[in-house]
Amino acid sequence: MDMIANWLGNTPDFAVPFALAALGLILTERAGVLALGAEGQMLVGALAAIGAQLAYGSHGVSLLLAMGAAAVVSLLFALMVLVLRINQVIAGLALVFFCQGLTGLLGTLLDWTNKPVKGLAAVELWPLSELPLLGKLFVQNPLVFMTPLIVLAVVWFLTRTTTGLRLRAVGENPQAADAAGISVLGYRLVAILAGAALIGLAGGYISLLSTKLWIADMTGGRGWIAVALVIFARWSPWKALAGALLFGCIEALIPQLAAAGVRLPQYFVLMTPYAVTLAVMIWVASGKYSTGNQPGALGIPFIREERR
Amino acid sequence: MSNLNAIQLSGVSKSFDGFMALSQADFTARWGEVHALLGENGAGKSSLMNIAAGLYAPESGSLLINDNAVRLSGPRDASRYHIGMVHQHFKLVKPFTVAENIQLALPEGPGNHAFSGSHRQRLAALEQRISDKAAELGFSIDPRKITESLSVAEQQRVEILKVLLAGARILILDEPTAVLTDGEAERLLETVRAFARQGAAVILVTHKMSDVKRFADRVTVMRGGRTIQTLDPQTVSVPELVRLTVGESAPASEYQPAIPGEVRLQVRDLRSTGAGGQGVLNGVNLSLRAGEIYGIAGVGGNGQSELANVLMGLPEPCDGTLELTGFGDLRRASAEQRRELRIAAIPADRYGAALAGELSVAENFGVGQVHSGRYGSFFRLRRKRLEAEAAEAVAGFDVQGVRSLKQKAALLSGGNAQKLVIAREFSRDPQLVLVHSPSRGLDVRATAAVHARLRAAREAGAAVLVISEDLDEVLALADRIGVMSGGRIVAEFDRPADRQAIGSAMVSHDEPGHAEPVAEGASHE
Amino acid sequence: MNEQVRPVMLEQVSQAAKQPKPPLLSRRYALEIRQQLAWHWQAVIIGLALLLGLGISAAILVAAGVPAGELLNEFVVLTVFDAQSLKAVLFQASPMILVGLAGCMAFRAKFWNLGLEGQMIWGAIGATAISLFEVGPPALRLPLMLAAAISCGLAWALAPVVLKLRLKVNEIISTLMLNYLAINFLLHLLYGSWKDPRSSFPYSPQFQPFERLPELFDGISAAVPLAVVVALLALWFLGISRAGLYLRFVDANPRVAGAVGVPVQKMIIGTVLISGAMAGIAGFLVTAGQEGRLTQSFYQGYGFSGILIAFLARNNPVAALVVALLMAMLFVAGRSLQVFYQIPFSMVQLIQAILVICVASSDFFIRHRIRRVQGGES
């Protein structure tokens, strides 16, 4: 039973990056921009967080810088996709490789690799932390507790503000939004930046609060899994949170099983997140699970097309 | 009705990639009137109004609002000048509620800024305004309903409410009754007429004579991108209006009477439903006979494209059968089989369904025959032979502008591209020829050449079907004419056909089989 | 008619009409799509883009500590004019050519094959299995390894393409996930049952001499002619065979292709499988050619390289040969930069990404024309 308690206690740590990244992707994709660059933006956030921490020692500042760095990098993506109208898939892939190369380079040149940093002290939510079995769930670092609030904020923004309404309109039917006088490109730009900030925060979480150091390519495909997660969650923030918890559970299970002495081939166990993602994609596509809710204009570049 | 001009467009020209959509067009609407803008598809009515609504920018000409010269930078700008347009294809966000859709269009202002006051509160206030306005106009609508769940007529009312609540005083409606039943159309037009009587200017873009006669105070006729005439609909007869809209009959070319043979293709009861009721097939029945050209006339948007897709074997879900004599249901045939059966298809969308623009002229010509081994085995494509035959075909079918057979097909002008498609399709001496809008975008010479080919096919004994929105073309080519309206053939005429009768059948909503020639001076309900 | 409403309304509209608009907004720029640009102009634009990309890369290299004067030396002189380096470049070029061709193939079927690394890995695993289990007589060993590499690479590409055609599963995610699965399986083998017992490093036992690609004349490995042969086969497939024409139709316009009788599904599946097979061969080349054993990171950098080569070469196999050669030069130069100037190898990846971005951006100027449009002036 101790194992279960530990397992539950560790789950949020794995779930948070998925949740934050998925939120960022949802913001961008709800505006109609296919955001495949998540893996790259995550890496940038991760590196920036470690670098800032090594330089300034303040977790708050580091995380903010992580968000900022990812947003700055996403300007390149915005340029490619909004101004130059490059195919969004190509632009996303190019961004990922750009960020992988950039972070690998800077991580080594600036000597930030493999330098451990101090994490954030866990916060106990008393009296919930005294619960049997579930207790450890309430002893987490502050960002974990903030994550549901962030989800709430994004949901509130999308469904209860006029700006959120306009953003969704831009993603569903940019021609209608344009005819209504809404700046399609303006909203998409802000969506890209905001989404990137959240994805950068996810990356910062992984490097600063979870692993507590930087190694090249440390996100290990989590950005791509987040992309699949958003499809699975039908672009709904709460469903994405649920999916993130699911993946967090799976990832948290791995060390627990090893510690419990269950002997599984190590690398097969490591395959689990990717295999589950693939299985989920197949299940979603097989139609038993409708992908209604896909933003109507996702992936299509917008020009006020003058047709005959 | 006043004598003050609300909006005036003068000398407006607009081209799209070389095609002149508008050529020195003029249009004026006064305060307090319902002004109809009448013309066939392609006449330029929508383009002109899109300019008035700020969606397109004209290349020349001027726009005056209340006699002040104005330049519109976009739809928001037009909205500032109290111009509102209800488009033919609604600009609604389907998953949103009615209130949310209207909220989008409301200009920023005190009480409507993104962060002042709660969104929910503003939506609630808006919902109230919507209900009030709707009641004022004489209908009811639930502002909380999801737009997708509304009927087409209701969605249109949302569009109207949207522009009215955004403060429109110059209201432009683009083909509003095209998607409505007669009863719904009646109510709509009465509503907008009442709005005009309150002092607003209402512009009604339409091709329906009955609407013009009953509701318009003035009508401006457009044709071929030009303004033809502005007149009072009460002083002109429907036949006269028809004449102005479709133009004089072109001089008939030499005609040999057809010797129709056996029935080659029997189209039985094609039915399909699209979203919202537009472009639906409502039980199309017709038969194509060998040695005869059957022309389908009608205003665009009445199911012609869908019918063409079904006939040509393009993906188009629908019920019904196509009985090909000696084969069975044509719908079950593969592309390979269609070629074996010598069926030629010339679709309207040349570069979307017939030619691959990025590939060479020779390749586009030969691809149909490649599988049969005519140009070599799997291992080696005999390009020389392909190119030789392509060259022959290019010469034989007078495809011009081909400097090299290797050049991209996309570089061919419209007429020559069409000739290339014909060259390919006719290379196996077809027994059934299906053509959709053959002379769209073609000049007079190319059109004549294409028509000559179609006649030649007829002479050779093929059954030919021509679907076209150009009434001149149908009249020139067809031995029998079917008029398509509302997704079915509503009338059939034999040659020589009465142009006026056909024109009336095209714009009427009569029951099938009841297209009557219209007497002089009678108003047409 | 409501006389009171009318003057008020007119007043409102007149007011709006009289306000002057700032001159900046009085012109609009219309983005027009070009029909066609002559190929030499396209080449000029792409060339300029490449130069820009190379310039940016050079600037970054200088900022990273490489003396500017040395750049030309490193990249051009040493890689081409030095015999030793030239051999290294050619050797490196062989798997590059193969992944580049693999990329070209898949893209021509409009299939984003990001699984090149996974397919390489399986190709290498297949070849290594033949060696470890000593399948076949020594004389046939090498061809059997090649055959195994082809089969395994091909098989690993089967699932994504079928999933895409049948269920519309996005192939970007599916191929990437399969990559990760392949990588982990490789590690499982290398740390597990296939580990070389004579060492603590995660690699397989060394191949026997007859299981390695021989060196032909003058120290040039057999990998080079093998790559050239595959390139010629690709050229045949795309340029001479009937399938090439079909594929061009599928690539240009699947709808028209279907309408004129091209077997679209078969073409797509076949082409993607060929792509996987080529990547498998690349895995074989690196393992049996360069390394001589199955190692844990031999595939790194090839996945993206393959895509980049295909992208820069516009899916043309001849151009892919040339670009692959240049990419090999980049790799070799990158390694020497690593040794002499301590610049990490991710620099190469960065340069590759910059080149892709520049060339992709140049496409904008090829496809569009910007026109100034007046807003209704009389």
From TrEMBL, chain B:
Keywords attached to this entry: ATP-binding, Nucleotide-binding
Pfam families (UniProt xref): ABC_tran
Region (Disordered): 506-525
Gene3D superfamilies: P-loop containing nucleotide triphosphate hydrolases (3.40.50.300)
Keyword Cytoplasm attached: no
UniProt organism field: Stutzerimonas stutzeri
Protein name: ABC transporter ATP-binding protein
All copies of domain ABC transporter, residue ranges: 7-249, 265-511
SMART domains membership: AAA (SM00382)
MF-aspect GO terms: ATP binding; ATP hydrolysis activity
PROSITE patterns from the UniProt entry: ABC_TRANSPORTER_1, ABC_TRANSPORTER_2
